[in-house]
Each structure stands twice: as C-alpha cells, then as structure tokens.
Amino acid sequence: MLRTLARLAAEAPRPAFNIHANPYKAQKIWPPDFAKLSQKHQFRLERRYRRRAKLKWARPRWTKMVKLAQLGSVISLAVVLGYGILFMDWGREETPFKGV
Known about the structure:
54% of the residues lie in helices and 0% in strands. By secondary structure, the chain is mainly α. The chain crosses the membrane at residues 68-88.
C-alpha cells in the first residue's frame, strides 16, 4: 500500500489532453455530409445511431423496478378487493358470496 502511494506520488503529472496533438486521429470525419451520401448509406448510419442511442439510454434496473412496483400494486389491489368482497363483515347478514 505504501509502495503504491509512493510510486503514485513520484509520477510526474500528465499534460492536459490536446485534441490537435492527439496521436490517435479519427479515421472518418463525423458527422458526415449527408448530402453526399447515398440513401442506402444514410439509412445505415441512421439505423446504427438509433440502435446505439437506444442501448445508451436503456435503463434495465429502472425498468425492472417499475415493473415490480406495478405488479405489486396490482396484486395488493386484488388482495384488498378479494378480502372486501369475500371476507369483510359489511354488517348485513346476506352477502353476494355467502354460499362461497
């Protein structure tokens, strides 16, 4: 642990990132000029963008929790209605489900 801290403290600070001095240049210009692309290529790029955006903004944990909350609320409503109809004492002798 101490050796790691000493090594990290001894390292020289890295210079700030400079986009113009980047050794890893992009191979393609983005965004492309859609006026110069064919309809088929435009559709491919749009479809790829839509798919990536959908994956980026997907929230599987949130979706799962919302579904569980909805299921819990439906089940609790069914339990309350079932109890109210079948077992609750309404103060009357005859109930619609007395035979049940």
